[in-house]
Amino acid sequence: IRKQLLEYDNVMNKQRQFVYSLRDAILDGEDVSERISQMLLETAEEKVALFARDKYPENWLWTDLENWLSRLTRQNLQLSREERKDISQEKLSEVIYNHLVAAYQRREEQLGKEIFHRLERFILLQMIDHAWKDHLYELDQLRKGIGLRAYGQKDPLQEYQQESFRLFEQMMDRIRESTIDYIFHVEIPQMARAPVIAVAEKPSLDSNPVPATKAPPAKPKSPDSSPAPVSVRKVGRNDPCPCGSGKKYKKCCGKNL
Known about the structure:
The protein is an all-alpha fold and 257 residues long. 58% of the residues lie in helices and 0% in strands.
């Protein structure tokens, strides 16, 4: 059992080495333009095999082909009806490939060469990472149930190798399709402009500053506005006390004076 597990792991390690070598090349700054060009060629051949299966061009799925191409590149296929009658599958693949390359070059001009090539490396790296994670999960599920094929008189290891290779090809197809789709449709938002702050104009040194207005001095109070003095009558010692007690002043409030 341990030997079988090691053989299963060996299949996964070979695929891992291929994927990691591809990732390392991208991270090291490799120009992926040739890889993208190969992806465009494979895509053109795949779509011809899908939409132009019949022997006769008049039976090909031209509408489906044009819809796919216009959605991807936002450009229509430039083929007249006369050209479509006698075209071969190889020639159609070449026409579609040239159409994709032209759209690829327009994107490069639109975004700028340096930014565009950095962007396509980033997109390809992201698509590889996402697809590889999904692929590892699929391989794990495959290995859990591959032993049951022994009941059908089949070698589980050979079945695992074949199925894992099929899954690996599907993973590479997903990477190719998603990478091309993102390259043709991704948009880079323009950086928001910084708000313009209005700065008050600094006064010239030659200009005469406006003197500050002084507050008017307070007006002196009129003599008539002051209260009149109150006259107080002096109380004699034998006079009645002003407190109203009825006693003499000297025996009441003025006793201690």
